[in-house]
Amino acid sequence: MPKRTGLSLFEEAKKIRPQIKCIVLSGYEEFDYVKKGMILGIENYLVKPVDEDELLKTVQTVSEKLAAAREATEDVAFHTLKDNTLWRLLNGEINKNEWEQRLSLYGMSSLRPFYNCIDIRIRQCS
């Protein structure tokens, strides 16, 4: 890479997108470079010629980490939406159509046109 290293590129990318993952494929076994990469949070440092099984295992591990992070983010977003719905319901800010849409999102439906029973469990926030 002219005028910059892969690690400097990764460092800049991490500032923009902190959740980014990096696997280094290098022709050099320089300890200082590996150490800097580990400090920056690279997932693995593979020296060429790359062992195919190790590369596949590394990619699979990174893929699983990304999927878990995405699932956690979606879970937080879902709980935030539920909290928002409850808040708006308690403040009388949700009309019937929006209420039906929100219930549908949670896998619920209105059993009767004039009432619903809701089981509310308060989560402890830290």
Report on this structure.
- This protein has 126 residues and is mostly helical.
- It has four helices and two strands.
- The chain folds into two domains: 50 residues, Rossmann fold, CATH 3.40.50; 55 residues, no CATH class.
- Helix 2 links the parallel strand 1 and strand 2.
- The chain starts with 5 loop residues before the first helix and ends in a 21-residue tail after the last helix.
Order of helices and strands: HEHEHH
Task: Name the poorly predicted regions.
Answer: none
Number of strands: 2
Q: Give the domain tally.
A: 2
Q: Share of helix among residues?
A: 55-70%
On the 0 to 100 scale, the average pLDDT is: 86
C-alpha geometry: elongated
- Broad structural category: mainly alpha
Distance between the termini: 45 Å
Strand order of the largest sheet: 1-2
Largest sheet: 2 strands, parallel
Count the DSSP helices. Answer: 4
Strand content: 5-15%
Quick rundown:
Keywords: Cytoplasm, DNA-binding. Residues 1-63 form the Response regulatory domain. With 126 residues, the protein is mainly alpha-helical.
Give the tags.
126 residues; mainly alpha; Rossmann fold; two-stranded parallel sheet; elongated; cytoplasm; HptR; Response regulatory domain-containing protein; CheY-like_superfamily; Sig_transdc_resp-reg_receiver
